Amino acid sequence: VFNQGVALYVEDLRVAFDGFQALGGLSLTLGLGELRCVIGPNGAGKTTLMDCITGKTRPDSGRLFFGSNLDLRRMSETEIARAGIGRKFQKPTVFEALTVQQNLELALAGDRRVRQALRARLSAAQRDRLDELLQEVHLWSEADRVAGLLSHGQKQWLEIGMLLAQDPRLLLLDEPVAGMTDEETARTAELFRCLAGRHTLLVVEHDMAFVGELAGADGQVTVLHEGRVLAEGRMDEVQANEQVIEVYLGR
Ligand code: ADP
């Protein structure tokens, strides 16, 4: 039905909680390999949108397609994850007692039964992928370190690495740089720009400097407000939009 170049298609999505409309007709299209930032004040519906995409929340109406033909409204959370949608929540959740490498081995083995997965040998291809992931998420020199001893930013990278191990086509990232140092934030921006193209990224973020860095001169930024798209365009366009200014300054 849709263009081959579409990664995610959202049309007129509506969600109400006890009569309160959290999403009131939200429409959004992400291109394949796109890096899209979604911003908006508290309560705008950012989390609800991500919950709908992962199947955690069931929309009341609207269309929600992954790629050209997967109807997410008809799929379970497990089916959606298996189809290639990975989500990173704000707080890092890694196995603190295991090393960086062991955390990634578990993710590559794709087995929840921890002890069994740790005993299992990775294939040669998985070993190569492990090395690649360690470099990609800036943790090569920390491979043998216990994850609990990593900095906050490094834990976030490790969790992103664990998500990447599952080879998702679409990555949903919820405030990924909250609590990071400036240097960690800059390296995270670099990482995401590297991932775009191979993966489609939807990043919900409050840090405007970071959003500006991710979007660059041409990237699209979507502003949500009261469950709908208030504005969409390049960062400079969005920042100059009167309605956006009004919402952010609370006039
Ligand atoms: P954001 O992530 O942009 O801050 P949310 O998607 O969390 O916004 O919330 C949108 C609105 O929906 C908010 O007003 C919030 O209070 C409400 N909401 C979200 N989840 C629930 C829920 N499970 N029950 C009732 N209201 C909810």
Question: What does it look like?
Answer:
The protein has 10 helices and 10 strands. The chain is α/β, with parallel strands linked by helices and about 250 residues long. The chain has 2 domains: about 1-85 and about 170-250, 3-Layer(aba) Sandwich (Rossmann fold), CATH 3.40.50.300; about 95-165, no CATH class. The strands form 2 sheets. It has a 6-stranded mixed sheet, sandwiched between helices. Strands 2-1-4-5 form a 4-stranded antiparallel sheet, with helices on one face. The longest helix is centred in the middle third of the chain and has 14 residues, at about 150-165. It is globular and about 55 Å long. The model has no long low-confidence stretch (mean pLDDT about 90). Bound molecules: adenosine-5'-diphosphate (ADP). Adenosine-5'-diphosphate binds near residues 40 and 48.
